[in-house]
Design goal:
The protein contains five helices and no strands. It is mainly alpha-helical. Helix 1 runs antiparallel to helix 4, helix 2 runs antiparallel to helix 3 and helix 3 runs parallel beside helix 5. The radius of gyration is 29 Å and the shape is elongated.
Amino acid sequence: MAAGLEKVQAEPVLATVRRLRERIAARFPGRGLLRVADELEALVAAVASSTASVRDRRSWLRPLSRLGIVAVVVVTGAVLAMAARSAATDAPDDGLQWLPLLESAVNDLVFAAIAIWFLASVPERLQRSRLLGLLHRLRSLAHIVDMHQLTKDPERLRPSFRPTAASVAMDLDRRELEHYLDYCSELLSLIGKAAALCAEESRDGLVLETVSTVENLTVSLERKVWQKISVLNAARDRGQPPIAPQS
């Protein structure tokens, strides 16, 4: 496999977000969707910076963690060896007198196993908090994108639609609405890619589970957006003339 294709890279994702932000600014400069794109650009940059710092920190934490594990194993082995030598020298006559020695050996092994687990998980646990914070912000941003497209109902562009006093004004025509919904879909897709960047630098179970949750959320919300785009395309294919925005 070619270099750079084994995993999602932060630089192409950030470049794509910036291009999308420019496209939204060119067509909808006064819309809140542009602020969402600005926030997503800042978040992707934060994810890229975080994963880079995690990689640097892990490069020196892992050797220290392994050194600590070796020290625990050596000390535990030495303690058990001394205990065995002492037991062999002063072997109890009664078998029941061996129980305290066995209990002590089991306790030493249990504590050694806990220490080894703790040292082995230190690099992952140190990065978990920051990555979970970024993933929470990405999940919130996905819901914000969904709020922006929530009232953009293509059914309201039909000639037969009769707004009520409580109806939200539709100030987009069919072509503008299609572009707007398309941008929402792209934003959701890029939020999912930003979440995938967090998974590239972590094998922590909670982080991976949260990444999966964010990706499933964005796919579900994208499906809703594409249902609206399909309605617009179906109306265009039937040859209906463009409809002016309704107040």
